[in-house]
C-alpha cells in the first residue's frame, strides 16, 4: 500500500515551492500572479448568478474565473480557493469544472459530506496561500504590543489583503491568537 498524501502536505508543498520559485517574500501575496506562474489563466467572468468563482479545465488548459462584482478581499480568496481545487482536486487530463456559489461558506448544509470536505480543503489551501505561516509570524512580530488584539488583527488583515474574519481564523489555527 502506498502512503496517502494528505491535503495539508500537498498544500504546504505546493505553497513552499511556488513562493520560492517566484521569490515571494512580502505580502500581500499576488494570488493572480501565483496562478499564472503555473500556467493558469485568470479572468473576470460576468456571472449573472450568485457565483463567486469557477475553475474550468478543457483542452486549452485551466482557467479561473472570478466575480468582478465582489470586493477585492473576496475576489482574492475566491481565486486562491479555485487554485486550491486545481492543485488538490482537479483531474488535469480531462475536461471539468468546479463552481462555487457566493455563500458557499455559510450555505455549507446544502453540500454532501464529501463536497463539504472538498470545500474545506480548498479553503484551507486559500488561507495558507494568502497567509503563509512564516510571513504571518514575521508580521505578527512587527505588531505594536500596546495595541489591543482587534486593532492588530485589522492591521494584519490589511497587510495580507484578506478579510478580518479570514485573518482571525488563520491566527487561531496557527495557535497565535486565542479568542
Ligand atoms: Zn469550492
Strand order of the largest sheet: 1-3-2-4
Fraction in beta strands: 5-15%
According to CATH, the fold-level topology of the largest domain is: Arc Repressor Mutant, subunit A
**Which molecules are bound in this entry?**
zinc ion
**Head-to-tail CA distance between termini:** 41 Å
Structural class: alpha+beta
| Low-pLDDT sequence parts | none
Shape type: globular
Give a description of the structure.
- By secondary structure, this protein is an alpha+beta fold.
- It has two domains: 124 residues, Orthogonal Bundle (Arc Repressor Mutant, subunit A); 48 residues.
- The protein has a four-stranded mixed β-sheet with strand order 1-3-2-4.
- α6 crosses α7.
- The termini are far apart.
- The mean pLDDT is 90.
- Zinc ion binds next to α3, β4 and α4.
- It comes from Mucilaginibacter jinjuensis.
- InterPro entries: IrrE_HExxH (IPR010359), Rad_response_metalloprotease (IPR052345).
- This is ImmA/IrrE family metallo-endopeptidase.
Amino acid at each position: 500500500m502506498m502512503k496517502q498524501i494528505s491535503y495539508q502536505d500537498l498544500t504546504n508543498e505546493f505553497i513552499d515551492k511556488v513562493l520560492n520559485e517566484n521569490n515571494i517574500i512580502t505580502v500581500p501575496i499576488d494570488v493572480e500572479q501565483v496562478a499564472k506562474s503555473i500556467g493558469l489563466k485568470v479572468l473576470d467572468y460576468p456571472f449573472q448568478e450568485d457565483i463567486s468563482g469557477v475553475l474550468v479545465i478543457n483542452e486549452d488548459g485551466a482557467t479561473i474565473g472570478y466575480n468582478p462584482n465582489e470586493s477585492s478581499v473576496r475576489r482574492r480568496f475566491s481565486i486562491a480557493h479555485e487554485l486550491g481545487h486545481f492543485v488538490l482536486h482537479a483531474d488535469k487530463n480531462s475536461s471539468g469544472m468546479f463552481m462555487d456559489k457566493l455563500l458557499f461558506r455559510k450555505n455549507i448544509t446544502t453540500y454532501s459530506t464529501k463536497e463539504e470536505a472538498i470545500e474545506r480543503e480548498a479553503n484551507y489551501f486559500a488561507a495558507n496561500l494568502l497567509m503563509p505561516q512564516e510571513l504571518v509570524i514575521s508580521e505578527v512580530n512587527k505588531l505594536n504590543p500596546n495595541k489591543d488584539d482587534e486593532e492588530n488583527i485589522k492591521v494584519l488583515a490589511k497587510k495580507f489583503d484578506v478579510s478580518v474574519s479570514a485573518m482571525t481564523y488563520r491566527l487561531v489555527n496557527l495557535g497565535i491568537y486565542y479568542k
